[in-house]
Fold these 4 entries.
Entry 1:
Amino acid sequence: MRNSSISKFFEKSRKEKLDIVKNFANLSEEELKILQSNNGGISFEKADKMVENAIGTFSLPLGIATNFKINGKDYLIPMVIEEPSVIAAASKGAKIARIKGGFDVSADESYSIGQIQVLDVDVSNGIRKIKESEKKILELANSKSNTLSKMGKGAKEVSCKEIDTPLGKMLIVELLIDVGDAMGANITNTMCETVSPIIEKITGGRVLLRILSNYSTRRIVKAKAIFDKDGVGGDEVVDDILMAYQFADNDVYRAVTHNKGIMNGTIAVANATGQDSRAIEASANAYAARTGKYRSLSKWSKDKDGNLVGSLELPLSVGIVGGISNVHPVAKICTKILDVTSAKELACVMTATGLAQNYSAIRALATEGIQKGHMRLHARNLAAAAGATSDQIDQIVQKMIKEKKISLDRAKKLLEQI
Ligand code: NAD
């Protein structure tokens, strides 16, 4: 059984950390070399094939969050993020959630929604005719993917809706497609384009847009965890966290920042595994406003024993095949470290990480404030950069915080004095 609860992981050297990850994930020497190579994982030649007008590549820190137990399975979670404290906060949140068994997460099947905009049409007649031809439309859509058809996946349903706009009524035809273990953007767009000519023929209208919707409401992931009352810091801290949550749930200015904290966790895993982070954030923000008011994406309450209970629901469109997940060597290794075997499992991990992150942020805000932890971590990084050993780091950090002088020069001076 793999154990992600690794004592003092943050104090270990890079080599020790890599050895732990290598053993945990059964990485090959080749994969280890890629992680050690310091070039961010892709060559210029690869970058030049990915985007237009390429002039270079750009790398970001890759770290590992520890302590995660999700649906009874232990995970070391690769996170790519430039912001300090996030990886530590996720690990801390997971550590407290672990006391009561970790995260319970479930995910819908991977259904994407493709939209076809039909103009110059008698909408109600069009809807009736489309429904009559549903089988034919689905067959044509599915002719575009042997892979999905062989897996029993692919286009499953056609639905229609009318929208009323200042430029007149429009018919929107939607394809519901089980895209399996991919994000599914390309197959969704392909299927929409493929069926458009017969949709024009059937309805007598004119098709304009044919495109995936990033609002993935048929790919909802639900995570829940119980945070042990004593681990959280006692009854008062639990109650203050509930007050902090009410602030987020009832004020848009606070809610946006609160949800951004959730994205700190979720997007860092998205980055590490090569997901389309813009799609995830756009969808999450729309979901936060689904009641007509922008609110907290997470919910916080307490159980009868006074433990803190957190839940998070996200519409998540992610893949373990396709996109750059199979092209970027570091993204491939990160997916291997996670040991996820389906897009649904990856979505569960990303949602649990968002919830862990949210717990730590809201707890820090409701107790000592966010800055103290940030400054402590900053001081720790500077002490390490000055060359201090793990025993010396604590002494230097304490002194710098007490003096309120946190700099690399000061860390170097204090190290000389030890
Ligand atoms: P992709 O185009 O690489 O397609 C996935 C491929 O994997 C398909 O050919 C499929 O047949 C194959 N496959 C093999 N095994 C599979 C399995 N088990 N389940 C499902 N498919 C399997 O990848 P994609 O997910 O269609 O595209 C993702 C990329 O598209 C991202 O980079 C995204 O940024 C980009 N994109 C996004 C949008 C948008 O968000 N609006 C629009 C266009 C493109």
Note: The beta strands are 62-70, 73-80, 103-107, 111-119, 154-165, 168-178, 206-213, 220-227, 298-302, 308-315.
Entry 2:
Amino acid sequence: MRTLIKNGRIITATDNYVADVLIENETVIAIGFQLEVTADKIIDATGKLLMPGGIDPHVHLDMPFMGTYSSDNYETGTRAALYGGTTTVIDFILQKQGNSLQSALEEWKGRSDNNCVGDYSFHMAVTDFNDNTKNEIKHFIEEEGITSFKTFMAYKGALMVDDRQMIGLMQEVKKYGGLINVHATNGDMIDYLIAKHKAEGKMAPLYHYLSQPEITEAEASGRFADMASYTGCPGYIVHLTCEGALNAVRNATRRNQKLFVETCIQYLILDASLYENNFEGAKWVMSPPLREKKDQETLWAGLNQGLVQVVATDHCPFMWEQKLMGKDDFSKIPNGHPAIENRMELLFSEGVNKGKITLNKYVEVTSTNAAKIFGMFPKKGTIAIGSDADIVIFDPEEKHTLSAASHHMNVDYSGYEGWEVKGKVKTVLLRGKVAIDNNQCLVDKGYGQFIKRNKVSQTI
Ligand code: URP
Ligand code: ZN
Ligand code: ZN
């Protein structure tokens, strides 16, 4: 099967030119100006941008968390991702404390196998690093293709590891060419502040925000960077939100260590004033919380300075009914918000259209850098001969409005209700197949493939 995409403007992390793209089966086999070739299917992309399929390396699908499950499963979540131009996601497996990493993998496979519409991979969250866990790391990197290990410096009592475990894990992961990603906030300080607010009868969502001040993130980010530098292990800070934390990274990277930073779309465009509307603020109860306008400015600058390499979502949706679990106590509101479908269009509209980032930077931070950092490049993350034909055909001019009434995520509200965006995903190809066209999904669950990833030491 050969597909020819004609006359699109190809945007990669480094290029911007008009050309034709020839795809055979799942792979790009030629790129050129007015290619004289035959094809089974021809797509006219005149006036449109052709960009590599988005990669969202931070999503939580069908995840057991805070007494419930995130409301998008592997089918609805990866389908919504495709509608929004994201062709590959990386989800998180959570080790249960006391159990093995392998048993967690089996549990997650039970929910995800044959259920994905788009491509996916896993990070392994290590919540209990001990001699048994230590012996499993090599197997995960070399056999399972799971080369990144998540740690939580918060969520004390459930997911949090201490610094002793962190150092031990870093040493093991470095040995085999993997990477540690981290939720970097100071879990003890946060625990103290939650208990203090509750003792004072302060139960509204606003106190979720006030229990996680900037310093809790700045301190943990710096501490993580120091441990990563000491062990020589590559590190990746997920969902970084604020000036203090980015300054800790800025300082650390003077040592030339491999330390990468992800922010999420919500931290670039939403702010903490949303917590002022009583329980409505629960829609944006996430950890870390939304921050201040000055932090948004820092994050946009961080993208352009190359200090922030990835814009993800931390997609972790809950139905309103689930959010109500915390109506009398902010600490019981399931943490997370939906964005898997909105990331690419929102970042284009708010970032490229408003002149905050270039088109090349947009591709870098929505796709290419994640592919490199997580060992998938050049299979994913670019439009090049030999790469998977994961291509978004994008109309940079079309305006539309985001709403829960029209989105495809399995959640009954939108964090962006009524937002006007300029720029729309029109057609999405995943491994050569037209997956989305004209607001319709043309592939079924089971089409999405598990992507075994390479050692990150090969791509960063
Ligand atoms: O609020 C969030 N971020 N929920 C998902 C779990 C995590 O910390 O990433
Ligand atoms: Zn987190
Ligand atoms: Zn997360």
Note: Residues 239 and 350 are 18 Å apart (CA to CA).
Entry 3:
Amino acid sequence: MNTQLIHNVRSRVEEQFRNHSVDHDFDHILRVYNMAMYLQSQEGGDIDTIACAALLHDISDHKLNGGKLNDGGRVAKELLLELGTDEAFADAVAKIVDGVSFKGAGIADEAFNKEVQIVRDADRLDAMGAIGIARAFHFGGSRNRPFFIANKAPEEHATFEAYVSGNSHTINHFHEKLLLLQDRLHTETARKLGEKRHKLMQSFVDDFYADWNFEAPQRNKE
Ligand code: ADP
Ligand code: NI
């Protein structure tokens, strides 16, 4: 592993993310990086490519860069070239960075190599389970969205543009993305880890509806 390069990339990313955004804090990046390293240890794939792509996967998020979709790869490549990597390596990482994101329920994930599968799985695992639930409500709250509107049904988005411009309530995000992730994990190792996280989200949503629709039990008449 090229520890010097990984160290330099990590420092640059940390600098950029400091005080940056509520839903893409540096802690998310570190969790994804650690998970990607674990998945790599079980599943293989080029460790330097996976490490750099995990650290750089949110480097230019459309929610923070003025709305440009798929700009992350370009920014990642520039940074890597500046840090002295060769062009082929920078291109490989850039391709993964652009490929990682969930782009909508109706859009298939292009799994062009092991490395993109691993970074994508690591990013998705962090959107699932207890942390995933926390992140979703944090995201909705930061945009002043209601967490639930009873008569507003979820949508299946057919384009990335439609997905990112949707501004539904947060419970819908579970149906539009979070509950779909388990079946879209690529690697065996991630699928195993995802099971528990998926179940937790499912029972959370089930309980949410049950509590919302609470009706007082009928009193027994003597
Ligand atoms: P990722 O970092 O997994 O690529 P995103 O950039 O899409 O994910 O979103 C960052 C976090 O905010 C994730 O946990 C995601 O589930 C959550 N999030 C994204 N869109 C919404 C939304 N419309 N409502 C609630 N949470 C959202
Ligand atoms: Ni991410």
Note: The CA atoms of residues 38 and 122 lie 9 Å apart.
Entry 4:
Amino acid sequence: MSQETLSNLLHETRRFAPPPELAASANVTAEAYEEAAADRLGFWAKQADRLTWAKRWDTVLDWTNPPFAKWFVGGELNVAYNCVDRHVEAGRGGKVAFHWEGEPGDSRTITYADLQREVNKASNALLELGVVKGDRVAIYLPMIPEAVVSMLACARIGATHSVVFGGFSSEALKTRIQDADAKLVITSDGGYRRGKPSALKPIVDEAVAETTSVEHVLVVRRTGEEVATTGKDVWWHDIVDRQSDQHEAQPHDSEHPLYILYTSGTTGRPKGILHTTGGYLTQVAYTHHAVFDLKPETDVFWCTADIGWVTGHSYIVYGPLANGATSVLYEGTPDTPDRGRWWDIIQKYKVTIFYTAPTAIRTVMKWGDDIPAGYDLSSLRILGSVGEPINPEAYVWYREHIGGNRCPVVDTWWQTETGAIMISPLPGVTSGKPGAAMRPLPGIAADVIDDQQQPVPNGGGGFLVLNEPWPSMLRTIWGDDKRFLETYWSRFDGLYFAGDGAKKDEDGDLWLLGRVDDVMLISGHNISTTEVESALVSHPKVAEAAVTGATDPITGQAIVAFVIARAAAEGTEGADFVKELRDHVSKVLGPIAKPRQIMIVAELPKTRSGKIMRRLLKDVAENRSIGDVTTLADSTVMDLISAKLPSATD
Ligand code: 6R9
């Protein structure tokens, strides 16, 4: 039996130092780590001063009743004022807040002054519809400016928003409306996706018909397609457009509920993650400033996430706007009208900071290097990654083919629950290691521990935990304190357990190894799916890989891999290729990690936010009927993979 909690098989020696000019003018230097270590709460108080408070707080942190934290106790502020009005008051009303790009090619330029008028009008419309402070509002919209305006209008009047991703079913929308007891739903006739209008309103009608709390449905006209109307409907252009563009923002308590965002994790009933006001805005503003080195005067920031995910909340809306940034907001998919669309947008708006997910990076890698090579991407200076571990090879590809070998890549680890980035390089400080999220940010305390709650030594792997409360932490699961305690605070005494495995390398830097539920037990060794996937992706013909453990009579579990080949690669079928890949993994990680079986597939099952659903692959690998596929982005993917099964054994 091995002593380790989680094996450390992958050894990566490449290093990328920060570009000297970037380091010389970086927003945050290495001193921030020392400063925060010397006085963590003082450090966060200083960051809270980036915001404009109507009433200053009395106490930075109240942790007398853990894990129920209160940050900036007694303080009062208005989030919308901080994100919009104060920039206009400072004379920056003419600055662009969003370059919005519709999928069909239409666009809108929205300045901070425009945003202020729109948010004020929407706030007045919500009030006319009877929404008051403390009410919940469900937002089910495509990536159009009204999505941002709706969120800010809620924040302004103190209504708590619950954004539901526009790709979710009416059933998912219904349960979220019910759980939050939403009074209003904001939606649109539809949005554009893959070159055609995609309707949303019928989905809302179906959901709302089965709920009792909703009084009105506010509908934005986006596609102009015919929609059925119900007695609850109000058109956005009928009610919002005629409102006054003046609205005086009232301050709200620092712990006032800002939003609920449902996260399903990999299994189980969705959890309504609750975020509040002062601490949340402090940490999203600080991390956006620090991790992306944002220079609001010159940068153009683009986060490709959907507004329905936490990444969209924190790094499209609240962080960038609190910092007065100029951002890109794009409605559609990366391959409409062709696979160059994202690079075209970067070229058009001269994007300087680009933040996306490993799944997207691996997809564009699969499509081929020649596509981004056809565009001018020289405006870029920093690249970010979020959502999954980034495989070293995908990181290096991203750095080279998108970043022209000049831009640091920041791999940012965080969760819906943490609200903001927690572990990440600092682009002007850290020498990046491909695949590593590196260190907790200044002011954040994280560690990797074993099952006895002891920190693992350098070189060891285990459970990622957060040792101290942080400003943007979730406050509870909406309506379910007990589940909040059980889910996050019960496994280790006094620590927040994130559900992820991680390792500390020889220098003590952190590498994320995926969800601990996915860890495989092979002949007594705990092997992470991430390391085997990264080894597969390091083969030049492989674009993407997903790995799962399947029951095995000899080794307990055996490794089964699903691989997508790069489009331009040749000889990617048949037993020879499979053998080549098995040998490759064995060479990179050691014979213990050699997959028993490899299937070459065209697609992998992913959640709508792009995370691989290994649970479903395990069903295939163990020849079971396939489990719940309702959270899959494309439910036909599993049929394709299952059909591969008979010929796939090596
Ligand atoms: C922001 C977001 C959270 C889970 C998290 C982890 C995975 C996110 C990661 C990462 C490795 C990174 N994750 N970022 N794993 N490296 N840089 O994605 O929130 O949708 O709640 O997912 O995503 O497993 O626990 P959310």
Note: Confidence is low (pLDDT under 50) at residues 646-650.
